[in-house]
Amino acid sequence: MRHLIIIIFLGFCSFGIAQNNFDTAMEKAFQYWEKEGIDKAEHMFERIANAEPNRWLPHYYIAQINSIKSWPEKDENIITAQLKKAQRHIDKAAGIKPNHPEILVMQAQILTNWIAFDGITYGMKYSSKVSQLYEKAAAIAPNNPRVAFCKAEWQMGTAKYFGQDPSQFCEDIATAVKHFESYEPTTPLDPNWGEKRAIKALEDCES
Fold it and tell me: pTM of the predicted model, to two decimals?
């Protein structure tokens, strides 16, 4: 019995050490992102993903970084490589954590990158899929601020494209801002972006 207790205790200790190492490595990657550049952060997340194959967050952030880098990119070869990498990693994240609203939102963002890059080629292909992803995420987590904001932002963009009044979604933007004000991430490592964009969008609505 004493041996069993020792084994269980050592197992909990090992889990605690592994968890602490993961948290420390993730925090270091965020510090790189803030102070030393997005590429260094990406490399750190890749190292963590290789060391922790059952964790979804490193894959999520690799996907997010490649989505972010793709927005201003004009070179087709570069943007294709970035978005294919983003897709590989968001697929891995989804395989670990199926139907997670944050992953659904990031998948929608990646498809929106393709549409923004070449609307003629990818608009018809991906637009309905993006809408479906946001609807699915909203059904799972309607009070998640990124779900609420990105869904409303997408609807505003779609309205503009079809010559409709985008201001009909300003109330949804305002609701998203309220969600940001009360939102608490499950852990300090969980996604917590978008509030500044939502506030700016609401200011544009009110101007």
Answer: 0.89
- Which tokens hold the place of 164? 């409709």
> Which DSSP category does 168 fall into?
G
Q: Is 162 helix (H, G, I), strand (E, B) or coil?
A: coil
> Which residue is it, tokens 């020792």?
6
Q: What is the pLDDT averaged over residues 77-92?
A: 98
Cα Rg, the chain, nearest whole Å: 19
Token couple for 110? 């990646």
| Close Cβ partners of 52 (under 8 Å, ≥ 6 residues apart) | 22, 58
* Cα–Cα dist 199/172, whole Å: 12
**What is the spatial distance between Cα 95 and Cα 99, in angstroms, rounded to a whole number?**
9
User: Among positive and negative, which fits the CA dihedral 16, 22, 28, 33?
Assistant: negative
Alpha-carbon torsion, ordered 86, 90, 91, 94, to 10 deg: 180
Q: How many residues does the chain have?
A: 207
Please name the residue ranges forming H helices in 36-144. 38-51, 57-70, 76-96, 101-117, 119-140
